[in-house]
Amino acid sequence: MTPDTAAAARTHRGIPLLVLHAAAGGATGFGHVARGGAIVEAGRRRGWRAELIVEAPVVAEVESTIPPDATVVSDRAAAVARRRRWTAAHRGPAIVACDLPDRRVADLAHAAADGFDLTALLNGDPDDPAPADVVVLRGRPSDRPVPADCVVVGHEYEVVRPEVQALRPPQPWSGRSINRVVVSFGGSDPGHQTEQLAATLGHIAMPETLLIAGPSFGESRIQDLFRLARPPLSVVADPDSLPALMLDADLVISMGGQSILEALHLGRPVAAIRWADLGRDVEWLAEQGLVLDLGPVERAAAALERAIQAPRRLSELAEAGWRSIDGGGADRCIDAIAKCLTAQASR
User: Which of 91, 215, 310, 313 is the most buried (most CB within 10 A)?
Assistant: First the structure.
């Protein structure tokens, strides 16, 4: 029996199997796994069998950041082998979802050969939409045709981890002054934006400012950052709970990715620098009135100094972000997949 006929023989009978294929560590960071774990939990709440598989070349580097029931493998071949074992033993519809743009083609193009009936891209790049049955575009609409049966986009599909949702306050920040700032540019910050921003902040009046060194910074880089930081700047390396630190801040400085969504969900004012491809996302969020766009890191200090003197504007941003990123994104992603699965079955 070919993969196509095997899939057709079982399609839409029994409990769906959702395999979410993600990656973590190094320059990849950890936001993809954070979103993936939340979507897997949403699938399980619907009664599906849902599995998270994570590619991590250095497994020890990511163990503390990955859900304990996830399957962690060191390379693509091991991931594909595990996916095929799951689909071979499953008797209902099988869905493979990918949250990592630079791995999407390899993951989704071979889906039928791996025994999957439906493909979903859950972090689609609006500037380069790739083919899948379901595409959830990241943050903003695409100017190009999206090769998919079901396309969804909007802040309501942004995914926030359950442990962050548990910290969400009843109201957003509405302070009268900025007394504490948290700077977080992700688990790896491959562009070394943390160091560049820290070097410029010494030239302006700043409140207490925590520079977050993520789990993939490496010991040498962390020590360099400690040497660079001078009061009121200080360094926190791989904190136990970044969301808790953000919740205790009056302003969060980010550059997009998962940390910016979590800060908005927690009702914190967010200012963001523009870096690489994430810069378009920052521009879009700023156009929607959710974050303050600081521009590239070389010009961020001046914009930040002005922002600190305008707490009322920051309070308005905090409220808008708090209302937009409400924590229901993972369930809405599962709803979109389920809708496409139903439509496929009716053809």
Answer: 215
- Hey, which bits of 224-313 come out as E strands? 233-237, 251-254, 270-273, 292-295
Yes or no: say if 46 and 338 are a contact pair by the CB < 8 Å rule: yes
Residue 200 reports pLDDT greater than 90: yes
Query: For 12-66, how does the pLDDT look when each residue is reduced to its tens digit (9 = 90+)?
Result: 468 999 999 888 766 666 678 888 999 999 999 999 999 999 888 765 556 666 7
Structure tokens at 258: 């998962």
CATH no. for 3-159+328-345: 3.40.50.11190
Report residue 342 as tokens.
């139903």
Which DSSP category does 71 fall into?
E
Name the token pair of 126. Answer: 């609006």
Q: Tell me the pLDDT tens digit for each residue of 140-164.
A: 888 888 878 898 888 899 999 999 9
Query: pTM of the entire structure?
Result: 0.87
Where does the chain hold its CATH 3.40.50.11190 domain(s)?
3-159+328-345
For helices 31-45 and 329-345, angle between their N-to-C axes, nearest 10 degrees? 60
Residues 6+ apart with CB under 8 A from 248: 180
**10 Å Cβ neighbour count for 107?**
28
Two tokens at 158? 């942004």
- Residues of each domain in the chain carrying CATH 3.40.50.2000: 163-324
How sure is the predictor about 116, in pLDDT bands with cuts at 50, 70 and 90? very high
Looking at the domain 163-324, which fold is it?
Rossmann fold (3.40.50)
**Cβ atoms of residues 236 and 213 within 8 Å:** yes
